[in-house]
Each structure stands twice: as structure tokens, then as C-alpha cells.
Design brief:
Elements lengths: L1 H15 L1 H24 L20 H29 L12 H33 L4 H23 L1 H6 L6 H7 L4 H29 L4 H27 L6
Helix pairs in contact: 1-8, 1-9, 2-3, 3-4, 3-9, 4-5, 5-8, 8-9
């Protein structure tokens, strides 16, 4: 099944190129970590507190600092993502431990992400209007299953549109309509891929819950790298979809 092969290809992409992933991601992640440490040391945020709320978020004056830190974190994440796309698709290997800073492509990536989000907004609003009435009528497990099933079509549509992002990351032009045309006939593949990614996300959430119950506040030392790896796998899925459907690369 091609959807499963795309998932495996993306996972292996991260595992096989772990050193390049470190070179691309270590500095940006360290900057985010340093910013969080500053917030902790200055008392703007206090934590960890318990397994359900790892940080105690402030009100008042600390909001601005947290907002600016969030912007910095967003920029650093996009810094990693754009360089990862470029590494895989253009073989731009990282040189040393300071990754390139392609500011223009980073902001272009952000703008294209907003465009895709706006395209998906009407469908999301309709689904929310459908979901809200049933939230209070079912248990948490049933709700999770229902949400997953309902959102599968959204995931499938999103994947078809999100392949415009790797194009932006490498300085190429790919419109929404061109992305839709390039992925024509991929519904079955994207359905399988969406199911696999959803199940894997649920599994990771369960692992986080177990670790939080066992280790409480210190669990983030394991869960943070786990989510970083999983995030890079998600980015690699988009890279693989673009490479396969737009560039015609095989899934080997």
C-alpha cells in the first residue's frame, strides 16, 4: 500500500539522516530551550507543577514575554522545516552546526501555511458545528474515535494542499490548483496515510501519558525529543509527497 510506504519512507528519512537532522535542528531547538529557561528563571512561567499542566502560565505582564517567545519559537521551527526540505529535495547538506538562515523562504513558508489554512477553514468550521452538539453526549474514548473518523477527509484534503509548502521551502512555485492536479487519484493513498499518521499520533500521546504518570514533571526530558522526532517525520511526509507526486521520485 502506497500510503504505508510513504509513511515508512518518511520515517526512514529521519532515522537514516539523524546526524543531518541534528545539525539542522540542534541550534534552533537550543534557542527555543534557552528562551523557555529565561522565562522560568525570571518567574514569568513556573513549572513543572503536575503531570497534566507542566507549566503554570501567567496573566498580566508576562503575556507579552510569552507572546514574543512564541513568535521566536515559531520562527525557529520554520527555520528547521525549511532547511530540512532543502536538504532532502535539493541535497543541501548542512555544513557544521549553524544551519543556513534563508529568511525569505522562511517567511514565504509562513505565508503559504496561512493560505492553506484559509483554504481549509470553511471545512473545519462545518465540522466544528457538527461536532459541538455531540461533545457532551459521549465519553472521551468514543469522542476521540469520532473525531478521528470525521477529520480523516480533512487530513486527505490537507495533504493535497500542503505539498505547496515544500515547493516554497526550495524556492519553487506550486499553486493550490497545481498541487490539487498533481495529487489527482491519490485519495486511497492519502486515506491510508491519514489513518497511519492518526494512529501513530494517538500512540505517541499514550506514551506521553504513561511517562507523565510514571515520571511526572521530568517526563518532558523524554517526550520533548520524541515529539521533535515525530514533528520531523510529519515534515518528511510532506517532503515525500512533493517528491513523489510533483517531482516523480520513486518510493524506494
Amino acid at each position: 500500500m502506497k500510503g504505508w510506504n510513504i509513511f515508512l519512507h518518511s520515517l526512514n528519512m529521519v532515522l537514516r539522516n539523524w546526524k543531518e537532522a541534528l545539525q539542522i535542528g540542534l541550534l534552533p531547538v537550543a534557542i527555543i530551550a534557552a528562551a523557555v529557561v529565561v522565562l522560568l528563571m525570571t518567574g514569568i512561567i513556573a513549572g513543572p507543577t503536575d503531570q497534566n499542566m507542566p507549566f503554570n502560565f501567567p496573566s498580566g505582564g508576562g503575556i507579552l514575554s510569552m507572546f514574543l517567545t512564541s513568535l521566536l519559537a515559531c520562527f525557529c521551527i520554520l527555520w528547521v522545516v525549511v532547511n530540512w526540505h532543502s536538504f532532502v529535495l535539493k541535497e543541501e547538506y548542512p555544513q557544521g552546526w549553524v544551519p543556513p538562515l534563508p529568511t525569505k523562504r522562511i517567511f514565504g513558508y509562513l505565508l503559504q501555511s496561512i493560505v492553506v489554512s484559509l483554504c481549509l477553514l470553511p471545512v473545519s468550521i462545518v465540522l466544528v458545528m457538527f461536532i459541538v452538539p455531540i461533545v457532551s453526549t459521549v465519553d472521551a474514548t468514543t469522542l476521540l474515535v469520532v473525531l478521528t473518523l470525521i477529520y480523516l477527509p480533512v487530513y486527505m484534503i490537507a495533504y493535497r494542499l500542503l505539498i505547496t509548502l515544500p515547493a516554497t521551502a526550495i524556492g519553487e512555485q506550486l499553486s493550490i490548483s497545481e498541487a490539487w492536479t498533481a495529487t489527482k487519484g491519490s485519495s486511497g493513498t492519502l486515506l491510508v496515510l491519514s489513518i497511519v499518521m492518526s494512529l501513530a499520533s494517538v500512540l505517541i500521546n499514550q506514551i506521553e501519558t504513561v511517562l507523565n504518570n510514571a515520571m511526572q514533571g521530568s517526563a518532558f526530558l523524554i517526550t520533548a525529543p520524541l515529539y521533535a522526532i515525530w514533528g520531523l517525520v510529519g515534515v518528511s511526509v510532506l517532503t515525500t509527497l512533493y517528491g513523489h507526486y510533483v517531482q516523480g521520485r520513486p518510493l524506494d
